Structures are given as C-alpha cells and as structure tokens.
C-alpha cells in the first residue's frame, strides 16, 4: 500500500490491540508502522515493510534505531490552565497545616480562582503553553483540560476560550471540559442553589452556543455539590450536547459512582470512596474509572483502590490531574510507576490506563489510544530496552520522539 | 578579586549557608557567583559583581537569564553499577508475589549477583555510563556507589574497579563503598561466619591495598548480617582506613542505629525501624541519617519516619538508592517531592538532604554540598520560578545547566 510515513527499527511496537501482536498489549517485536495523511495504514514486521509499503515521493522514512514505540499518551483529567502558584501551600501542608489554615493564609482553590479571574485570556494561554510543551515532551499527545477557576460566566468563558486557543497553538490535542461546578464561589457561599441556577441557566447555554467544551464536569463532594445538584447540572449539560465526565466519591461516599452509571458518563474520576454497588454499576454501564494517583502522591493520601475496579470489570484510565494545588505534575510515565508500585496494577494495565483507556475516558477510543490501521498516527518513541522500563525506570523522561497525526512534533 | 568564571542573572542563588543570604538556606536574590580554578571565590548580589570581580582574559561569563542556582546534588547511597534487569520482578511484585516466589522465579538480589558475576569490568563500566549521565542531567554532581553484587573477592574487586573507572570516564565524582557484606552468597548460605571471615581476611585487605574504596558498608538485617558480624566487618574496615556507612534497621529493629553511633559511622541508611534510643544515640554521635524514600515508593512500603530524626536533632540526608531491585531511579528532584509530600519534611529540609547533608553522609562537607567561598564550584541551574518548584513541580527535570568544579558539563 501507499504511505507517506514509514517508521522502522522498532525493537518493540506496542499496539495496545491484542490481535495485532503478542500478549494483552499486542506487542510486535522488530516492528514497523506506516501512515498516510496522518492515519495508520499498516502495522507489521520490519522485515516485511519494504514488500508491503510503497513510500510516496517525498515520503518520510524514520529509523527508530531500536527504540520502543507506544501510542501517544492520553491524559484524560487535568486543570492545566490556571494563573498563580500554590508553592507556599505545598510547604504549609508538609508542616501539617489543615485545609482551613491554608485557606486562612490565602491558599486553597480560591487563591487560584482569584489569580485566574485577574488574568486575561492571553495571559492564561501564555501560562498554559510551556505546560503543554512539557506534557508533549513526556509523551502526551491528547489532553483534557477543565475550566473551573473562573466561577463567573465571564471568567468561565474566558478560561474555555484560553483552553481552546492553547490547544490551537501547539501540537497536543486539547479537549475542553466545562467545570463551572468546580467550587462554590465566595459570592454564592450562602446560596449554593443560586449558583447551580447560574450554571444551568446562564453558563451552560453560553458554553454550548459558542461550542467551547466537549464535556461537562462537577465536583460532586460533601460541602461542594450534592448528588441532586450534580444530576441537575449533568442533565442540563447533556441537553446542551456535553458528555458527563466528573469528580465522584473522592473524599466522602456520596454515590457519585452510581450517578455516573445512571447518567452514562464517559468517566467518573478520583473514586477513592466509591461503594461496591457503585463500582458494579459502573462496570454494567461501561463507565470508565479515571484514577489519579499523582494526587494521592502529592497530598500524601491513600491511593484509589484500582484493583477493586479492575477485578469488577471496570475499565481504568490513569490521568495526571495536573493542577497547582493537589498535583503539580504531568509525567504519565511516573503515573504508571505509581499505578504499579502503589495501586498494584500490572505494567500492562498501567500502559492501557494512559493510552486506550484514557481515550475511552474522553470518548475518543475510535480515533486514538491504540495503534491500528485507521486510527490517528499518534506515536511515542522511547529510549528503553523494553516497554516495561517506561515505568520500571522511574522519575525520568524516556521519550525521544513524538509524532502527532504522523508529523514529528518533538525530538531530542 | 580575580576569577575565571562569573555566573550572573540568578533570580535565586541558594547557597545552603544561612549566613550568606536569607532564611535557613541562605538565599541570595538576584545573585551572582565567581570561581577560580574550580573553587568558589565570591558570592553576592549581581549588581555588585562587576565591582567585586575581575574576570581574567579568557574567563567565562555565564548569564543564567533568571534561572535558579542550587549546589550540585550529592547522592550518598546508590548501587548503580550492576548487570541485568529486574523488570520482571517489578511486575511480579505488583501481582502480590512474595520475596520467596520472586527468588524461586530467578529474581531477587541473587539474580543481579549472577548477572554481575557474569559481566566483565568493561561491560559494567559501559552499563554504568548512561546511568551516570542520567544522574548528571538531573543535577547530581557527586555520587556514592556500592559494590556488593559480586560477593567473591574477584568479583567485588572487579566491581570496585568498574566503579572507579566509571567515575573517571565522565564528570560526576564517584566515591566507592565496599559492600561485600551486601548479602550472603549461596555458596556460604550454611556458614555465614565463614563469609564474614572471607570479607575480613581477604576482601578488605585486597580492597585497602588497591585503594579501591573510601567506605565500608554492611547490610545489617535479620537473615543477612547480625549486629556482631556487622561490628566485626566495620571494625576491620576502620582498621583498613575505610569509614563506616551502612544499611541499618531497615526491615527489623536490630540496633543498627546504636551501632552506627558507637562506631562513629558517617551515616546509617534506610532506618525505617530504628529505636528512639538509637535515634538519640545518632544525634549525640553526629551520625547522619541517610533516608531513601524512592525505595519505599518503588516497593509500595511505608516511608522512614524522617520527622523523628529531624526533631531529635539528627541530620537527614536524602539519597536515591538507585538499584535494579528496589528503586530503579535516580532523580533527586523527585526524591525531594517524596520527602515533602510523604515524609513531611519542609522544602528547605529536603533541599539540604540532597546537598549539604548528602555531603555530610559522604564525609565531604568541607568540599561540596553548599555554595561558599573555598568550596568546589559544583552548581546546578534550574528553569524554575523559585527554588521550591524543584520539588513542587514534580516528576520532570528542571535542570538546564550543570557545572562541575566550575566547568560547564551539562546544558540543554
């Protein structure tokens, strides 16, 4: 067949499609891959490449020189557009400061809200760009980014516009999640239902009209948004064409997992305190569990019970939760190490978590997350002796090249 | 004064010497530093640099363009010279395999011993070189490396020679620790005292005669070397001119902390199970506690009680424990994050742990570990808005430049 890109010299080509190679990840040893116009057209043994693939004139041949290839990582839960820093809070927490003490000292989520409200959309885009570049350099080719530090119609729209523009200005695909229900803003502290009214009656229609988001999110948690409020927001979001993808059962068991199943959400996220019935309901409804071990690590808290989800048949995605307060980091290779060492996921389950299952959590599994003919050619090359070293040799960046839709967009 | 290197444009110059700047880390804002023949000769405000420092002809001026400078990191506990891989064991452990099952499947420390015995010194040097380059790129300028995967006189000498040669072939200063007492080799399993005899009567004299090590180490642990055996080896080491620096009270309380105090060891390492009396004895004797959070992280175990040591007045060093079985990673920026988020050390204590206190754990505090006139110019420049971001923004590499003895040895 005809191709405009041929990648050869892959010691291991990890397709994440079992029928294409060995084991649950479908690994092709000494593999090769061809793409045409940004889509994969052929996967096979490097020895067969020249027989099977005809490279067009001006087509690109990339010799991976024994590197390992995996699908571009999909980070399905981040808050990476924000202004300000919460370094001081990080230091206070180490000294044992409570949430209340941190808030009294001017920290907490509302400090990010203040800084983000004060920033222009241009400033937010400028701040996001190096963060996206850092993600790309660590292998992430698709990312979900939430609003939720504006909490007024004007500032939520500003954040979503900044998220969209940040996405357009560099190679990582960015999908926006409208998270106006991230926190109750101070001006509505005594009348939270009025804030829910504002979200439903003003923010959501404005977001939908401008087509600024693909998803709708709610921080469903004690002291934030109740199950009833969450249902109301998600239903209004669905009516506006936004898929549900929300924070559920993180610190307190409220029944977020059950609600995610009831609503047919793409993902329920965090889930440290989900009930067994909720987990079973998620399995039945096909809701992906998006677990965020970096947050547990950064806050020094217990990790989500990943094995409970996996052993109940729930698909587990792993995401970074990149945000200034509870997880200031976006290296999904390290997130995989946490999944294996702390949550007892297998290296295979961890890699699926940041690739195919991350794509499921974003509703993009038909386009990205694995390497098979027809999908986008989002490809990461890594300088490792075998794919397991992506998480086994931890805390460093193994990525040497990143291709997005068949175009080399990062190399070092 | 005269200098052959002048570094300006430092948003923050973190000296780790309180009298040279603000706070416990002696931070100079908008700082500069001058060096001559590899040693620091001046530290001050960038605005004063041209008045105070006369750069010699051909002297180098480095504009740090607003970056942050910290002392080169000192990694005081590693096993980074080895052959083979233990990826498979890492995956088995996630499945809940016991130490016994891992050993039965050919894993565990003895698998590294087999592979290292089978390797030549040349091969060990080749394997170590990229690991040292990775450390350097992450800011480490001095590292301790242990033998202990040979466990025969011939193979321990071979390892120590490889450690020495690996050190000479690249910029990171490498100090060897003779750790023949890392494990009881299979051939001595039924007569461990005979192996101690071999260490004392044959290995130690051979090591000392060839000047292959600066330190002596023992894995003092239930089922490995007892307190009495450890004392015997450390005393023989001291007689041969080697300072004690050893694995103590990691999994079982044996009294390693007390022994370290009694022997005047440079450091006692791991220390998850030290008794309060042992901690107090270490404080009184001035023994540094070398804590290794990466090992707890990688194995999914509890972290060492750092606050107990700090609050008792023990100096705490933080090291990577880089090794294929229990901590396959050497990023000390991430080790600092673990110290803050998991062990509740302050960001200041964490930075001292990988700099000045690491130097204490190696007996090199007169030469390295902080930035003051007279010390070596081992300097790391980082692309961060402030020094706390070295650990706050985690899982990535912030290092942009590394200078060793005033020479630029890494830049990206």
How would you state the average pLDDT of chain A, rounded?
A: 97
Using the coordinates shown, work out and report the CATH topology of the largest domain in chain A: TIM Barrel
Number of helices of chain A: 16
Residues in β-strands, percent of chain A: 15-25%
Query: What is the largest interface, and how many residues per chain?
Result: A-B, 37 and 38 residues
Structural class of chain A: alpha/beta
- Number of DSSP strand runs of chain A: 16
- Just give the CATH class of the largest domain in chain A: Alpha Beta
Question: How far apart are the first and last residues' alpha carbons of chain A, in Å?
Answer: 31 Å
* DSSP helix fraction of chain A: 25-40%
Any idea what the shape of chain A is?
globular
Specify Rg of chain A, calculated over alpha carbons. Answer: 21 Å
The CATH superfamily label of the largest domain in chain A reads Metal-dependent hydrolases
How many distinct domains of chain A? Answer: 2
CATH architecture identity of the largest domain in chain A: Alpha-Beta Barrel
The low-pLDDT segments of chain A are: none
User: Oligomer, anyone?
Assistant: homodimer
Biggest beta sheet summary of chain A: 8 strands, mixed
